[in-house]
Amino acid sequence: MYTGHYECLEIFARPACGKKGYIELLDENGSVLHQKELKHIYGNWIRLQLKKESTYEVRLRDAEAALAYLSGCEDILERGICILDTRTFSEMDAQQYHSFCDTPYREQYHFTPVVNWINDPNGLCWFRGYYHLFYQYNPFGQEWNNMYWGHAASRDLIHWKHLPVVLEPQEEILDNPVIKGGAFSGSALAGEDEVCFYLTRHVGPQEDGWDTVQYQTMMKSRDMLSFTPEKEIIREKPENASFDFRDPKAGKYKDHWYLVLGSCLDGKGAILLYESPDNEHWNYSGPLLVEKEPIRTIECPDFFLLDGKYVAAGAWMDHYDGQGRFQMSRYYIGDWQGGELSVEKEQWIDFGSNCYAAQTFCHEGRRILIGWISDFYHEHVKTEQGAYGSMTLPRELHLKDGHVYAQPVKEVYDLRDECLYCGESSDFSRESIGGNQYYVKLEFDNPCNFRAVLGRDGEKEISLISSSGKVFLKTKGVKSEEIDFTAQVKECRKAEIFVDRRTVEVYLNDGEDAGTKLFYNSSREGSFRLTASELTRVELYTMKSIW
Ligand code: FRU
Q1: In this structure, which of 178, 233, 286, 318 has its CB flanked by the most CB atoms within 10 Å?
Q2: Residues with Cβ within 6 A of ligand 1?
Q3: SS3 for 509?
Q4: Whole-model pTM over 0.70
């Protein structure tokens, strides 16, 4: 391993079953410089200081590395970490990383972690020239486990550089397999000189219950690479709140700070409102919203001003809607003068129900949303060095006629590559779309019936269908096949479809509704077929990779 510009080695490793594991660092002459014992069964994050432009060897003894990278270089926000092959500890250059990511199931232009599990986007913000995306991360495996905060930065919201992991679970959790927890979801508020982060610390039994402890902390950063120690800001729960009490999302209006938390009051999912004169001392002002539907808790709430109205948002934990869709997320739109939001309209955030825990932030007047592409129907196919979880395309939000519209940010369209077709047709098909990463735009003069097959893998299929005024995503031959993922539109005049390996994202009528659905296709070749009852304008482009 050659360090080049970097001065730090970070390895996430665990000992082989029942053994004491070690990591050894050797210099170029083969002398052992460090020997680190892997203390925890799970959750060893080893950091070693190195010299720049030097050669080292890493040896694992009775140990296995899940993730390894070089960090600690001056321009790391621009350059990103240097990812190491965990078998050889050699550096991956851009071309090698591109090939590493180029598997049938991994998205090519949606954000994915280097490896393993991610969930919610956290701490979204723009600070000094970069967009920052933090996220819930388990670097050790392709399943949820004790939570870390991963981090990436981007100049354009599209091309991301992976950055060092930021937060790890509390030490007590790493040493005790009976409990779980870690650095749960949270948000960021970027000022001129520093960014404040708010998050939940969770510790509790494997099954959540009244022994579960969730409290809120904050930390600050001036460079997005070093962070102040976390300080507890909210521990006391309102009397009638459940043990679900988490995911602080902070915002600022004029000179006043507010923060919302997801919880459940007297058995009803709720968003709790806190206010602060200085962004560090928080007072509970009461519920912003209490949901009537039976849901365990609202998770990852949000609250913001959008084109003159207030919008609250939240993810519904453990809830099936009337169509059998699991864990949908909702917007509540209305007026607010302090206290409870007076809701005038509600709608789903995404009709596909594979978009969860969405978070928004504002930059230069744009309210941008990113959601976690979740897999609530357990359709994941585990592959070696695979990633499990990704982020939706960044969506710009607007309010039109009291309804939230979500459209991919304009930067996404720069990813369009080769135009494969542009014309009119009512029966169009294209087999073997190399890379299975493409964009289709369909425009209809009059709303009509159509079926667009967006992916096929043997007998398995995913389609966008418009039939008798109902527009929906439908799968065949996979676990979600019983469910119609129905959009909240009366008619379809325009459909924009983004296919990216295992992910399909659909935007209808310039953002009137958005739907995200997974479809694991074992081939890197995609296909598209349209049959419509009327002549349709069709544009089909391949999409570039972001890695
Ligand atoms: C939502 C969520 C959050 C929590 C985090 C833990 O997906 O359950 O409420 O903070 O994930 O990873």
Answers
A1: 233
A2: 119-120, 136, 147, 184-185, 200, 246-247, 299-300, 356-357
A3: helix
A4: yes
